[in-house]
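Marked as duplicate of an earlier ticket. Keeping the data here for the record.
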Amino acid sequence: SLTDEAYLNTVKESLLAMLTPTQRQYLHLRNEMGLSLDEIAEVTGSPKTSVKTTISAARRLMLEHLRKDL
């Protein structure tokens, strides 16, 4: 039986696996590294609007997948 933390890590990994490499990269920079949208844009060379849209789409996709599984 998985512990709660192990279960959550498994769920997180499966959700991240659904995303594109760019979506995973942006979410990592935002959520794990704590970078601002401006900082992510600077680091990746992408427009801030693209960064914001990509992160939003990734979060929406993961949330929809979680809701389907509940």
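See parent ticket for discussion. The helical segments are 4-17, 21-32, 37-44, 48-69.
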